[in-house]
Amino acid sequence: MARRHAFLLALGLISAIGAGSALAQSAADVNSNLDTLFGNHAQYQTFFDQLKKAVGSDAKATVATMFDYPFQARIKGKALKITDAKQFVADYDQIMTGKVKAAVLKQTYATLFANSQGVMIGDGEVWFSGICSDNSCKQQTVRITAIND
């Protein structure tokens, strides 16, 4: 987070006074950014809302369906490859730690950060993006691509 703030400060996108707070943006700003980056914000907004609800209720099986497998999780400084939903559910508490859950639950749609790599929750605890569903990549499904504790 500190590096991101330093970068944004260097670009003049945030002031030194506001460096500790999120960039001031609205849901419309996020929609516009996602539309520019990925072509359609609606599926990202729906995905975010569903993820937040599932994490808030500890719906392990539901959260498990929201990943692009296999994916890398960084837990306690170590990379862990999660191969499928069954492994995810078994390791849920190690992957969806208190820090990761808090980041998801605290995050608001209007304060999401997005770039060409995807959409970030918190300080990078969760990343999600559109995954190609066909060879031409005209069809995409939004999935979680990384978890970092």
Give the arrangement of secondary structure elements.
Elements: H1 2-11, H2 27-38, H3 42-56, H4 60-64, E1 67-75, E2 78-82, H5 85-90, H6 92-95, H7 98-106, E3 113-115, E4 118-121, E5 126-132, E6 140-148
Parallel strand pairs: 1-6
Antiparallel strand pairs: 1-2, 3-4, 4-5, 5-6
Describe the overall structure.
With 149 residues, the chain is of the alpha+beta class. The chain has a single domain (25-148), classed as Nuclear Transport Factor 2, Chain: A. The protein is built from seven helices and six strands. The chain has helices at residues 2-11, 27-38, 42-56, 60-64, 85-90, 92-95, 98-106; strands at 67-75, 78-82, 113-115, 118-121, 126-132, 140-148. Strands 2-1-6-5-4-3 form a six-stranded mixed sheet. The longest helix has 15 residues, at 42-56. The chain is globular.
What brief labels describe this structure?
Nuclear Transport Factor 2, Chain: A, globular, single chain, alpha+beta, 149 residues
Concise summary:
The protein is α+β, with helices and mostly antiparallel strands and 149 residues long. 41% of the residues lie in helices and 25% in strands.
Uncertain segments? 1-21
- Structural category is alpha+beta
Biggest sheet architecture: 6 strands, mixed
Looking at CATH, which topology would you report? Nuclear Transport Factor 2, Chain: A
State mean pLDDT (0 to 100 scale): 85
- SSE order in H/E notation? HHHHEEHHHEEEE
Going by CATH, the architecture would be Roll
**The first-level CATH class name:** Alpha Beta
User: What percent of residues are in strands?
Assistant: 15-25%
Backbone CA Rg: 16 Å
Count of strand segments: 6
Shape: globular
Query: Number of helix segments?
Result: 7
Please state how the strands of the largest beta sheet are arranged side by side. 2-1-6-5-4-3
How far is the N terminus from the C terminus?
13 Å
